[in-house]
Amino acid sequence: MIITRRSRNCRSRKIKSRGNGFFRGNSVVPAKFIFLRELFFRFFFFFDFLDYTKNDGVFIITPRLYYFFYPMDNGIWKFDFYERKVSFKILRYGLYFVVVFAVVIALWGLAKHYQTDTFAEHGLVENLQLGLLFLSTVCFSFLALRDKFYRPVLFFLAGLTAFCFVRELDSFFDKLLPVVTWKFAWLFPLLALFYAWSHRYEAKAALFKFLDSTAFDLLFVALIVFVPLAQAVGHVSFIRDSVGDFENMSDIRRLIEESLELVAYVLIFLSAPEIYFSLIKEKH
């Protein structure tokens, strides 16, 4: 088998690089799109870009290496603006799926090591929930300060996550504030609603744009996981009526409830970057 260095097509088509792009004729392709969009696919379809020539019973294979440095003129991997937008959304949702799946696998590993202490009151999973709620509050507040148009909606989301953060620490605040207890957390969403009402005309437009976005879809999935699944399926009566009574019923209840709540909080946290990419960055 004889492998030549260059093919006829490569000799006949002159490719030269200047600055930030690769030039062929009058067309210019930015270099930053070449490896990200083309090299991955062409690595797996490399044999489609080989020249096979049979000469006296000998196959001559000439790899067209310039395909790795220049995209097809009208190939299927050449995307327009809408196709790039949808592809980026699919990539984001794929990353969200990987993150949620990794969290569930991590729960399995933690439960195998720490057993019932993983889901105990003030245990490891509950501390992870507090961390996610705190990060979500910080992210929503930062995005609210960054973008004026969606500020009423983002302040309200930050108020809700701050409320959930205090609610998870109810026993701590009950001892710290015996009169008010944890219920002072209602101030956070109420203040956010007051701010939204004071900017109600801007808030109305921002709200409807938010409700039509993929970020709201992600938050709605988190709401489904948090309320019907975590609170209903994780209820003792639901478990007892479904599979009977067990000696460690409270441990099973905490396992189901805390795991589903953690997944819901992960989805809420992931909605912050989704808001940035699907709403704020797209607007600009």
Description:
Strands 1-6-5 form a 3-stranded mixed β-sheet, with no helix packed on it. It folds into 2 domains: 2-68, no CATH class; 81-283, no CATH class. 66% of the residues lie in helices and 9% in strands. The model is unreliable at 1-27, 42-55 and 57-74 (pLDDT under 50). It is mainly alpha-helical and 284 residues long. It is globular. Helix 4 packs antiparallel against helix 5 and helix 9 (214-233) runs antiparallel to helix 11. It is built from 11 helices and 6 strands. Strand 2 (16-18) and strand 3 (21-24) form a beta hairpin.
Mass-distribution shape: globular
SSE string, helix = H, strand = E? EHEEEHEEHHHHHHHHH
| Proportion in β-strands | 5-15%
Largest sheet: 3 strands, mixed
Would you identify the regions where 5 or more consecutive residues have pLDDT less than 50? 1-27, 42-55, 57-74
Number of helices: 11
Instruction: Output mean pLDDT.
Output: 77
* Overall SS class: mainly alpha
Instruction: Please report the distance between the alpha carbons of the first and last residues.
Output: 56 Å
Count the strands? 6
Q: What Rg, in angstroms, do the CA atoms define?
A: 28 Å
How much helix is in the residues? 55-70%
> How many structural domains does the protein architecture include?
2
Strand line-up across the major sheet: 1-6-5
Which features characterize this protein?
284 residues, mainly alpha, 2 domains, three-stranded mixed β-sheet, three-stranded antiparallel β-sheet, 6 strands, 9% strand, disordered N terminus
